[in-house]
Specification:
The structure holds 2 protein chains of 2 kinds.
Chain A lengths: L2 E2 L2 E2 H5 L3 H33 L2 H4 L3 H6 L4 H37 L2 H15 L3 H20 L10 H25 L3 H9 L4 H30 L2 H6 L19 H8 L5 H35 L1
Antiparallel strand pairs in A: 1-2
Helix pairs in contact in A: 2-13, 5-6, 5-8, 5-10, 5-13, 6-8, 7-8, 8-10, 9-10, 10-13, 12-13
Chain B lengths: L4 E10 L2 E11 L4 E5 L6 H7 L10 E9 L2 E2 L7 H7 E4 L11 H12 L5 H14 L3 H4 L12 H13 L5 E5 L7 H14 L4 E5 L3 H7 L2 E7 L6 E8 H6 L4 H7 L5
């Protein structure tokens, strides 16, 4: 009938109330996303248009010794991606292990408790993880690394562990749901051939859950990229492209930098921070897009 | 070669519920034996005890014994995983591994046993197994394409190929044609008939015509009431069961008076 674009105008004008409600809700989300984009672009403008001399008026820009805005952003981007990827590398195997344990190994009661704990962990605010990182993990790691690196070890390695702990619950809970849904037929196919439990998991569960695990990982990565409080508390900031994850004062993430500089930034400073925020926005956007892409290709394969 | 199966006083339980009571029978080697009976009579449950697949269901247990060429499958030193490698199974719906190619599917079971398979050995197993399942000519040009791209009947024959690649002595089939169209069913039935010269085949079917077409012997199971255990009522030559059964219940079932 009168279905133009994404809306069914005919139904809209017939004032189907529920239809109006769901349309308004989804429109609201779209408008918010659009508004954020516009806001970021507008408030990033002054810094993007400013000359190098203008930017040098910002004390922390000057002390960063950057030649231009890009030069300023890239070390932050590097550290953000490095810390998040490292966190993911730690978190993904653990999450898969926990999900497999809950789904196939644990006795039902223990599985229920473990599931419950995972869901609780997912809802703990990030500042608590940050505090745990600085008060518990740092002194703990210091026992092993005390002679090698600064004490306490407020370095990217420590941060990545905390980020990993933060994203393990969400990744685990998604993967657990996927593994639970492994078709009975696939499981029996493996057992029928004389597979042990682990061989059954390898033949049936892991291939079935591979795409879903990938998109769960991307969601976790998205979280780690945007994490602020834990970074602010743990990392002693610096600027470099160093892969030395134990290096002191050599990394700072985008979100951590914004939180650190924002309280004392002048208007051009705020604008410059917004530029970095815009970059983070684009990175998370790409990660989510990749997650969707992977999830979709999974559906096509099945 | 097929092996003989002797079942002695077998009871199957789900928790405390007795699903099948006191089944004793002999299944002859290199023959097709069909299990028929109304829904819920325990024929599938009983079939799954022959390769201990019932243990995949929570709290399923058995009493009694099943002897495969005199070896008790339920003695304590027997590993259920090993039982399933010797007693192959084909399921109600085709279930090739969805992410694997045709070739990988055929080799899936073999690779569990034998990690170091040369390419030539693997090629030979794939070819003989697929030929054994009457599938080779249809798929020989696309062995590396996804198994789920095939028709339902081809997928089921692939599952049979996957099972016979393990060189089992017994093949269990749990309503293998119930998800297939008549033409695919015919292809699978032909295959079952051919396979019976090398394997002991046990097939559960809802379809009495199918039982009379493919099997040499038929066992009829029944339940007296809902919640009561299933029992073996009668087992005999298929021709006798369908022409002149000795038990009244069998007579009623095959003549369509119930079920």
């Amino acid at each position: 009938m009168s279905k133009i674009g994404i809306f069914n105008w005919h139904r809209l004008f017939k004032t189907d109330k529920f239809y109006l409600l769901v349309c308004a809700s989804s429109l609201f989300v779209l408008i918010i996303l659009f508004a954020i984009t516009v806001f970021l672009l507008f408030s990033a403008m002054p810094a993007l248009e400013s000359s190098q001399t203008g930017l040098l008026g910002i004390s922390w820009y000057k002390s960063s010794e950057a030649n231009n805005i890009l030069d300023f952003c890239l070390p932050l981007v590097f550290s953000t991606i490095l810390s998040s990827l490292l966190a993911l590398v730690i978190a993904l195997p653990v999450s898969i292990g926990v999900a497999l344990f809950i789904t196939f190994y644990a006795p039902p009661k223990l599985a229920a408790i473990a599931s419950w704990v995972i869901d609780i962990l997912a809802s703990i605010p990030s500042i608590v993880y940050g505090l745990w990182g600085i008060f518990v993990l740092c002194p703990f790691l210091n026992v092993f690394t005390g002679n090698l690196i600064s004490s306490p070890p407020r370095v990217l390695f420590t941060l990545s562990i905390v980020l990993a702990v933060m994203i393990i619950p969400i990744i685990t809970s998604i993967i657990r749901d996927i593994y639970t849904g492994t078709p009975h037929l696939d499981i029996e196919a493996a057992y029928g051939l004389g597979a042990t439990k682990w061989e059954m998991i390898r033949l049936s569960v892991l291939p079935y859950g591979a795409q879903g695990a990938m998109s769960a990982a991307m969601l976790g990565l998205g979280r780690a990229l945007g994490e602020t409080m834990a970074v602010l508390i743990i990392l002693s900031p610096g600027r470099s492209y160093s892969f030395n994850i134990f290096g002191v004062s050599s990394h700072q993430t985008i979100a951590g930098n914004i939180a650190a500089q924002f309280p004392e930034a002048n208007s051009l400073g705020v604008s410059l921070l917004t530029v970095t925020g815009l970059v983070l926005f684009i990175i998370t956007f790409l990660v989510n897009w990749a997650a969707k892409k992977i999830a979709k290709s999974g559906v096509a394969n099945v | 070669m097929g092996q003989r199966i002797d079942v002695e006083h077998l009871d199957v339980f789900y928790g405390k519920f007795m699903a099948v009571e006191n089944v004793s029978m002999t299944i002859n080697p290199n023959q097709v034996t069909a299990f028929i009976g109304p829904s819920g009579c325990g024929k599938s449950t009983f079939l799954r005890t022959i390769n201990r697949m019932h243990e995949m269901t929570d709290k399923a247990t058995v009493k009694g014994s099943i002897l495969l060429e005199g070896r008790n499958l339920y003695s304590s030193e027997i590993d259920p995983v090993q039982v399933r490698r010797e007693v192959g199974m084909v399921f109600q719906r085709p279930n090739p591994f969805p992410t694997m190619s045709i070739r990988q599917n055929v080799l899936a079971g073999i690779k569990l046993n034998n990690k170091s398979l040369t390419k030539a050995q693997a090629d030979e197993i794939v070819e003989t197994s697929l030929k054994g399942a009457n599938l080779f000519n249809e798929v020989k040009d696309r062995l590396d394409s996804a198994a789920i791209g095939m028709s339902g009947g081809q997928q089921q024959r692939l599952c049979i190929a996957r099972a016979i690649a393990m060189k089992p002595s017994v093949l269990l089939m749990d309503e293998p044609c119930s998800a297939l169209d008549p033409i695919s069913t015919l292809a699978v039935e032909d295959l079952i008939y051919e396979l019976s010269s090398n394997y002991t085949i046990v097939i559960v079917t809802h379809n009495m015509q199918q039982a009379s077409r493919v099997s040499q012997r038929t066992a009829f199971f029944n339940i007296s009431d809902v919640g009561k255990p299933g029992r073996l009522i009668e087992m005999d030559q298929t021709t006798k069961i369908f022409s002149n059964p000795s038990n009244q219940q069998t007579e009623n079932y095959i003549s369509g008076k119930f079920g």
